[in-house]
Amino acid sequence: MWQSKGEFEITELDVDPPQANEVLVRFDYAGLCHTDEHMRTGDLAFAIPMVGGHEGSGVIEEVGPGVRNLKAGDHFVTSWMPYCGSCRFCLTGQTNLCDNGRFLMGGTNLPT
Predict the structure, then answer these.
(1) Is the peptide bond before 49 cis (omega within 30 degrees of 0)?
(2) Which domain, by its residues, includes 51?
(3) Hey, which of 25, 27, 75, 93 has its CA 20 to 30 A from 59?
(4) In a domain, 76, yes or no
(5) SS (H, E, C) 20-35
(6) Higher per-residue pLDDT: 62 or 13
(7) pLDDT digits over 34-78, tens only?
């Protein structure tokens, strides 16, 4: 989406190679859910541009410098809620409370 309220659009995107602590992924499957609909109607604020279809799966194509636990060829599954795997909540099985949740709509993660 190119604006905070509008219609979904299917388009080709050119993306830069992954920078430090980033990965480049290929989505093989993605789904639009009710959260995406909230973004389309403007009921949920987000930083633009935004690519919907956050629930899906695919393969990691490339990793940037500093990525330690992932490699090209690894499979992934995505979800609305971030999961870092190392905060106190993730380590106790409460991934729905992951510390990364505070960055949910900003497109960032906890500092490494």
Answers:
(1) yes
(2) 23-103
(3) 93
(4) yes
(5) CCCEEEEEEEEECCHH
(6) 62
(7) 888 888 898 888 888 888 887 889 999 999 999 999 999 999 988
